[in-house]
Amino acid sequence: MGRPRKNPNVPKTTEKESRAGNTYITWDPGKPNPKQEEFFKSRKTYTAYGGAKGGGKTWAVRVKAVGGALLNPGIKILIMRRTYPELEENHIRPIIKLAPQQLCSYNGSTRIMTFTNGSTIKFGHWAGEQSEQEYQGLEFDWIFIDEATQFTERAFNYLGGCLRGVTQYDKRMYLTCNPGGVGHRWVKRLFIDRDYKTGSANPEENENPDDYLFIPATVEDNEVLLKSSPGYLKMLANMPENLRAAYRYGDWSSLGGNYFPEFRTDIHTCEPFKVPEHWQKYRSIDYGLDALACYWWAVDEDGRSWCYREWKEKGLIVQDAAKGMIERTLPGEKISITFAPPDMWSRQKDTGRTMAELFAQNGVPLVKADNNRVQGHMMIKDALALRADGKPSIVFFRTCKNIINDIRDIQADEDNPDDCAKDPHELTHTVDSVRYYCISRIVPAEKQQIEIPREEEGDKEDYEDYMTGGEVSAGYLTF
Fold first, then answer.
1. Do 16-247 and 265-438 have matching folds?
2. Could you identify which of 56, 108, 293, 389 might form a hypothetical disulfide with 433, taking C-beta atoms 3.0 to 4.6 angstroms apart as the criterion?
3. What's the number of CA atoms in the CB half-sphere (13 Å) around residue 50?
């Protein structure tokens, strides 16, 4: 059969022709808006398309992925969402309907769509650090991360390591995003603020600004949505002010992590200073083989807590964790108490001993902290609140970068908004360590007594002389 005439009403960017046997199949996914077409045409290594809700970003991912598979034989594509239900609802089912049935088939067990030209689209979701094992060693030419602000920077970097292979295709990553979420800061840094890491002694650590492109999305771009859902704009307008600014207008400064919105860098952080020796000092830890998060605290005379040192490391056995804590505590730095989670007192089945015993034997005695999550997180919120003097009860040295980043990024639990999200787990260790400290009893430093030198008996001034001005002199005769 001959090649059918192209539809003049469909832009070249969306009309694809592929051959199935001796028959040419015309694939018409629909007409893109100008922002979607810009997304289709981008050849940057990292392209982010986002901002306001309702801009048609997810549709653009589907069409770009299927179109790429049809036009590039043998290309390997990955589409990622944060959870499997989102993946199935937003991509798997729609793409099965969208892709030409004669040219592809879908395997529900492997979640891979295979095309007759050898191209593949794999559908994946990111379940935290355990997903690193699932994607270890995999290679893709294009990776799509839909709703990228739901991914941590660690996940983004790890998936970026999967952009490799020996095919002739340029390796690219396409992201869609809205303000807010656990990945808000890194997406904003790379694509909005364009604040790149440069000048490193190791050139591999540098970020090339020319590799990044951001395409802003507005709800007005999506005429189809506005026609089919005329009340959508009103719904966005009735949201709380910060959400309205983010989701209606794509304001990246209005949202971050949504559990500790009261946290502000200018108020709750400070440049390091020498901690006075007489301030009470404490430590708090959250421990597991996946990570140790240890914090050093100093309490001043007003009861204000200063987080002045942090240490976070993974893969440490108890002996190494205790040794590292001791080595990082300076000589003469008396630590009154080290607070730890209650599970440290659970007896091990193989030895019958507890982690707390092992820490104590290695020079770090522990005190059991309360493990009430909601109450503990509320205590952090209370500490972040401003006192009558206009200052909070807790301040972090700016060298404690992990906790500053994590406390800004951590989300509320979807099922219990009074609690922090337990996932991604890589953020929770630092916040839990702070929680164990804030929920525990601490003692303010005693005010230092300033000794006034005692006067010798002969130096004391006579009371009568003091009250009368001393003996009469010639000065009394003049004014």
1. no
2. 293
3. 26
Q: What is the pLDDT of residues 235-248, one digit of tens each?
A: 777 777 777 777 77
* Domain residue ranges of the chain, discontinuous segments joined by +: 16-247, 265-438
Q: Which two tokens stand for residue 410?
A: 């951590």
User: pLDDT tens-digit profile of 393-446?
Assistant: 999 999 999 999 899 888 888 788 889 888 777 789 999 999 999 999 888 888
> Dihedral of CA 419/424/430/436: which sign?
positive
The distance of Cα 469 from the centroid of its chain, to the nearest Å, equals: 71
The domain 265-438: what is its CATH number?
3.30.420.280
The yes or no reply on domain 16-247 and CATH 3.40.50.150 is no
Residue 194: C-alpha distances to residues 71, 146, 187, 266 (Å): 32, 20, 9, 21
Residue 7 banded pLDDT, cuts 50, 70, 90: very low
Contacts of residue 283, Cβ cutoff 8 Å, sequence gap at least 6: 294, 295, 296, 297, 325, 329, 335, 337, 338, 339
How many residues belong to the chain? 479
The model's pTM is: 0.68
